[in-house]
C-alpha cells in the first residue's frame, strides 16, 4: 500500500523558490569565475609586471600574476558550484515529489540540472584539483629557476584548460536552461505526481 503524500500550494511554492535560489547561486558562481579571469589576465598582460620571487628567465610573469588572482576565485566558484548543484538536485527532487510538471518540462529540467551537476562533480572533484596541483607545481618550479620542470607542469595545466573552459561555458548554458524551464513549468499543488496520474487515468 502506497503512502499518500499530500501537500499544500505553499509547500510547492517554497520548494520552487529554493530550487530557483540554488540555480541563481550556481549561475552567479560560474559567472563570477569567468568574470575574474576576464578581468585579471588582460589587466596583468597590459601591465607586464616583473615578479621579484620569479627569476627573469621565467616567461610570462603577467600570466603568473593573473593566476594568483584567478586561483582563489576559481576555488570559491568550484566549491559554490558543488554546493549549489547538490541543493538544486535535492530541491528539484522535492518539487518532483510535491507537484506534477506538465508535458516535457520536468524531463527538460532534470536534463539541465542533472548534466550540469555531473559536470560540477567532475570538475570540482577531479579536473580542478588536478589543474591546481599542476599550477602550484609550475609556480614552485619557476620560483626555484627549474625552467624544464616549470615548462612541463605548465604544459600539463594548459592541456586541461580547454576542457575546463568548455565545462564552464556548457554549465552556464545548462543552468540558464534550468532557470528558464523553472520559470516556464507548471505544477499541480496539493497531491503527489503519482496521485495526479492515478486520478487522471494515466498509466
Tell me what you see in this structure.
The protein has 203 residues and is mostly helical. It has one domain. Helices cover 80% and strands 0% of the residues. The chain has five helices and no strands. The protein has helices at residues 9-47, 61-98, 105-143, 147-184, 193-200. α1 (9-47) packs antiparallel against α2, α1 runs antiparallel to α4 (147-184) and α3 (105-143) packs antiparallel against α4 (147-184). Mean pLDDT is 85; it is low at 1-6 and 188-203.
How many structural domains does the protein architecture include?
1
**Helices and strands: which structural class?**
mainly alpha
Major beta-sheet overview: none
If you compute it from the alpha carbons, what radius of gyration comes out, rounded to the nearest whole angstrom?
Answer: 23 Å
> What is the ordering of alpha helices and beta strands?
HHHHH
Strand content: under 5%
> Low-confidence stretches at least 5 residues in length (pLDDT < 50)?
1-6, 188-203
Oligomer: single chain
Q: Number of DSSP strands? A: 0
Helix run count: 5
Q: In angstroms, what separates the terminal alpha carbons?
A: 18 Å
Average pLDDT taken over every residue = 85
Assign a percent range to the helix content: over 70%
What does the overall shape look like?
elongated
Amino acid at each position: 500500500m502506497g503512502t499518500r503524500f499530500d501537500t499544500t500550494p505553499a509547500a510547492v511554492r517554497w520548494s520552487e523558490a529554493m530550487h530557483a535560489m540554488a540555480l541563481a547561486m550556481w549561475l552567479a558562481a560560474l559567472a563570477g569565475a569567468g568574470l575574474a579571469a576576464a578581468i585579471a589576465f588582460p589587466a596583468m598582460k597590459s601591465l607586464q609586471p616583473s615578479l621579484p620571487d620569479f627569476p627573469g628567465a621565467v616567461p610570462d610573469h603577467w600570466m603568473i600574476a593573473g593566476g594568483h588572482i584567478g586561483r582563489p576565485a576559481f576555488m570559491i566558484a568550484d566549491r559554490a558550484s558543488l554546493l549549489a548543484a547538490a541543493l538544486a538536485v535535492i530541491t528539484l527532487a522535492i518539487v518532483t515529489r510535491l507537484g506534477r510538471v506538465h508535458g516535457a518540462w520536468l524531463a527538460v529540467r532534470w536534463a539541465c540540472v542533472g548534466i550540469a551537476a555531473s559536470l560540477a562533480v567532475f570538475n570540482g572533484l577531479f579536473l580542478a584539483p588536478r589543474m591546481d596541483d599542476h599550477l602550484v607545481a609550475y609556480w614552485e618550479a619557476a620560483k626555484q629557476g627549474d625552467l624544464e620542470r616549470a615548462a612541463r607542469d605548465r604544459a600539463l595545466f594548459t592541456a586541461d584548460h580547454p576542457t575546463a573552459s568548455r565545462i564552464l561555458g556548457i554549465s552556464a548554458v545548462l543552468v540558464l536552461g534550468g532557470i528558464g524551464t523553472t520559470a516556464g513549468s507548471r505544477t499541480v499543488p496539493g497531491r503527489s505526481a503519482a496521485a495526479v496520474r492515478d486520478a487522471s487515468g494515466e498509466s
